[in-house]
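Convert to structure. Protein one:
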Amino acid sequence: ASIVMSIIGVIGFAICYFNCHEHVPVKRNTQNEQKAKFSDYIKLVFTNKPLLCIILMTLFTISAMNTNNQMMIFFCQYNLGHMGLQPIVNGIMMGCSVVGILLIPKLVKLFGKKKTAIGGLLIGCAADLLNFVIPTNIYTFIVLVTIGYVALAIPNGVTWAFVSDVIDYSEWHNGIRKEGITYAAFNFSRKIAQALAAVVSSGILVLTGYVANAVQSEMTLMGIKAAMTLYPGVALGIAAIILYFFYGLTDDKFKKIADDLNHGKWEHGTIE
């Protein structure tokens, strides 16, 4: 199965590589590129407020998603009483998330990128918190965890459009285009988020007295449930707040930035 999926993955990447072409001419400041120092890269990242915003948002969204994934096996085995439920629940969640991802272009067209992402985060937050409050039941759990996962998949998909926007913003704001450092900074935040999820998952298990392959105490069961539902709910709520109040790169503002760049302009002059 792994070999088959690997082959499909390689074919998918190859199709993307050979069929993706740049249609927008990019004006680059070659003089600044030759003289770029490490401090210049640091400046490009830390003067890009929209980038810092999505990095901070990503710490919460990706850690929420990974905590959910990591705790699923524990929740199914101990809280639901059957480890065999894990692949079934994961299959339902991930299968439905594909539908959510396919809806992203339509949602963005109707509401814009920022509102679509915030809406997904708030729905996911509500579903996860409700799942924590309601007494554990296999049916309500599957329905709510699926809603939460699908809702999270939507802003996670939109985030990659945000990355493209903040690259253009960086060029418009600094007069220099550096895609690589922007993607590197963003991807590094995803790695930190994955590590944070591991800390949350393992930390809660340790703090609540988890013992492998044993009957768990009520405290441990509550800790597993909290890691599975409460932490993702709170994390998605914080992510929505960050995006709403601090991400100032609206669709209208981006249109103006894109128009300036198309005419060879940046915030303080002409790109040479």
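Protein two, convert as well:
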Amino acid sequence: MQIYKVGGAVRDRLLGKPVTDIDWVVVGATTEEMLAKGFRPVGADFPVFLHPKSGEEYALARTERKSGRGYGGFTFHASTEVTLEEDLIRRDLTINAMAEDDQQNLTDPYHGQRDLEARLLRHVSPAFAEDPLRVLRVARFAARYAGLGFTVAPETLELMRQLSESGELEALTAERSWKEISRALMEDQPQVFIEVLRECGALKVLMPEVDALFGVPQPEAHHPEIDTGVHTLSVLEQAAQHKQSLTVRWACLLHDLGKGLTPEEEWPRHIAHEHKGLKLIKAVNERFKAPKDCQELALLVGEYHTHGHRALELKPSTLLELLQSFDVYRRPQRFEEFIAACEMDARGRKGLEQRSYPQADYLRGAANAARTVAVQPLLEKGFKGPELGEAIKRERLKVLKTYKEKA
């Protein structure tokens, strides 16, 4: 039995980056031997075990062959005869196909170290094209390591393009796709993820609503970058630079989808794009089964982001409607995330990345003012049921009028 550290742990140590998760491959062992040593089996598809003390994953060396469509369409074979090199060749990228023994001796049959130095994301073998999930994975790695100068090798991008055109991407489950998308959005440069997907043709398959934004112009006075797709990437970039949450980043990606529906003769204006985009945002949310908080914020930001930008001009009654829509009294965090998404939208414009956003404090102040209205005095006056609701609304409106006059 020989045990090797493999994949990301080896890659990140060589890059000088902190190693968090460690995966291990065991060569020359049987399932029975692993169980006898106290390892706990996980998963039914292939032999993976948890270490009895550390809880880290140990997998028996295995080979695989394509047996169906999609990410799960593979047959695995594990035996004591499978070599380390045979196990490594089934991996996606050369930089993930290296192994180390306990003395840190490197096994690198597919030149991963050379590609690390050349800053290239290159596939290990033609078998790369058998797994459509790898299109998303490579784009995610591109987003993670873009800051170090990594790019996708041209021949790998070509395989990704072939996969995108093959229909295999449609076989991915919503859950697997969302796992990769959500992880990619939380990388340092999530806009690179979208750029790579677009470059290989995967974006128009997975998110045609986002792909449709590229080449759609906006008024230069408000959007010096002009192109709506470029603007969306810039908003996403700002969200990452400001360490925003996944919910905010998802909303930033989808906030302008309605502009993709504007007839060309109306360009560069996009009248009512906020409402037109809601059905598209809903479709993308449902396609990937995004978590409920991501879905809700994306729809609210899509509908109300221009209200956010015009906050200082809004009538008190419109401001109150906005606060009610977000249920700021019971869900203050959601309104904070809305404000953050609006600010990222304002900053995601060429040359305006450092602009101030006074609307943020104004909106927070309005929410705090509305929250000062106490219910108890109204109950003591005898209001109840729908009448109580109307009385609360009147008091909040009164408070917001005063707030606007003083602002």
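The mean pLDDT is 94. Residues 385-406 form the longest helix (22 residues).
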